[in-house]
Amino acid sequence: MTRFSLASLVLLLTLVFAGAAFAVRPDEVLVDPALEARARALSEGLRCMVCQNQSIDESDADLARDLRIVVRQRLVAGDTDQQVMDYIVSRYGEFVLLKPRFSLRNALLWGTPVLLLFAGGIFIVLNARSRRSTASDALTAEEQAALDAILHRD
Amino acid sequence: MIETGHFALVLAFALALVQMLVPLFGARTGNQKMMAVGSPVAVTGFALTALSFAALATAYASSDFSVASVWENSHSLQPLIYKITGTWGNHEGSMLLWVLILTFFGALVAAFGSNLPATLRANVLAVQGAIGATFFLFILTTSNPFTRLNPAPIEGRDLNPILQDLGLAIHPPLLYLGYVGFSICFSFSVAALIEGRIDASWARWVRPWTLVAWMFLTGGIAMGSYWAYYELGWGGFWFWDPVENASFMPWLAGTALLHSAIVMEKRSALKIWTLLLAILTFSLSLLGTFLVRSGVLTSVHAFATDPTRGVFILCILTLFIGGSLALFALRASRLTPGGLFHPVSREGALVLNNLFLTTAAATVLIGTLYPLVVEAFSADKISVGAPFFNLTFGPLMVPLLVVVPFGPLLAWKRGDLLAVAQRLMAAFAAALLAVLVTALFINGASVFAALGVGLAFWLICGALTDLAIKSGLGTAAPGVVIRRFAGLPRSVLGTALAHLGLGLTTLGIVGTLCFGTEKILSMRAGETVELSGHTLRFEGLYPAQGPNYAEARGRFALLGADGSTTGEITSAKRSYPVRQMTTTESGIKTIGFSQLYLSLGDEGTDGSVVVRLWWKPLVTLIWGGGLVMMAGAAMSLLDRRLRVGAPSRRKPAGTVPSASLP
To answer: Which domain holds residue B399?
Structure first.
């Protein structure tokens, strides 16, 4: 049996027994390895809409399979990666992206790590400076009194 | 028996209320008798909770389907081990395990806390009692595991097949020991805030507890990761799933706490920060419990449909996080800041560690919660998945990992960066060599992959350098070196082991992600497949019958260079009739530190089957590194200084141990 007919048999079987399935199936794989690699990379960034936090690359849901096939069809048609993503977002919304876009609404999401790192760094530097300038070797009046009390106890 | 357990649970709730109120009041009024109530009550509360848990476990083990929770999550045909582990394989039972561990830790404080100042112990137990009381109330009102059914059903609905695995026996108890272990650090912090002072005994107590909690949490996460890896059948070891993040956030904050507690203990600096971190770490544990238990993760709207549990936990969350932070805001100014240090010093390095770890924890937090926030405040829905975390968390970790080897070699108070850099030359050379070897001799290695391998070697060699220098390698005679090595403080060995483990985990991650290969194909019996130098022959599918499932077992022979069979891999597709669920049992062959991973897909009528095969180089190091980290924590716990009660034994009776500095 040739590779092609084997693949079409599997495809036929999956159409007939559309139940328990599997993530990427042999029949989906593109002949061109470079194109297939791009398809896999794109699939990892796309969410399976009916699963919990699974990419379409990992999911065995039928909807994920449909989306994987769409991605491959677009790539074969000559789309760039960006065009494929735009096409899918235009159909399914931003929810499908596992990496949210850099937009104003997501500014807090993307900005927090950077902001926190810098704010924390500045806080530490300022704190260290002020501590060094206020700290002195001389005892405060209170400390001196406490020390005297201890020394004169005996 | 069931009703005894139920009754014991109610009684434990009442005792938790006593434990919360009486010692607290006693500590405020200076009443010794009231303060002394805490310990026996804590121990009794633990005994009652244990009795209650034992009753539920017995119901599960004996398949008593008159208990609703058993009926929903068990089946008479299940193997006994899964009947027992099923006790906590559901919401109600897992909450009972949660409070069991909470009261266990409370009892430990009561049992070993005789050398603590009386008021501190009373306050700690009171806070512990308060946490216990709210969770007991939560269980009794919204998630009672002892709800009965009348008439009792004949047969149960079976445990979720994915949970019918040894992983369930190990992962949740370890994870909860970690989560809940941080409650002790939290209680100590709140107690210190109530008292308005923080002394040497505080730090000496908090550090071992942090170590214990961190050790178990590390084990729990590593175990969970390995479980997901082999059970889910697509070979991933970390998915940035919100449930995973829920356990990872306390781990990151707890790791920061572990390090700042060292500064506090040794140098009595960073007191206020350590206290805040202890509060935040347990808050993240509570938040994790909320996220996992409330159903809010699937959707904000799913949460709204059955809000009783979620709202209750949200109230607990608000009460404890809000309350402790408010107390912190009010009282923190009373605490005196500690010793000074130069930016280039061990303290400085640990501050840097804390900055990166807390930022990383905050990044994971915002990534986990942002979709919920967007969904709550707009009509849109967004997803935040692995690509986001890889892009943010990765860059935060790399600089942290780069500075790790410097930390233990820097002196306290004021360090000499140049001298430390010179001492690390050998480690640096080894790392550089690793980069070059990877880049030049391994096919398809990217620059990132080579640098990643170099980073891992830098960590591993850095940890070894620390040990070598501290035992005087190169400067002293070999005999002296061995004697010195044997005499190194256990905490020094612990640090080196933990950092070594981190390096191993890094190496495993880099190896798997950058050098792993994969093949998806359709195979028929007798056909062979070759992947990264390993040849497998498919022997065929064989049906088999398990106690409560049927499976199709695919057998594969691993072939040597001469075509002879050198090993076998079996992967199966199981179907559980009761729940009508299918699971994939992956086939794994460990070769050195690497693994061949195989999972089965659809069958064809001609005997062909879809096979997905991975070669995962060095993958076992990911979890092996976790075990080494745990060993590091255990080693550190064995340190003389931290052995609970050790100082009191060395001192004559009558002295107050807490007054002496370690």
So the answer is: 201-421
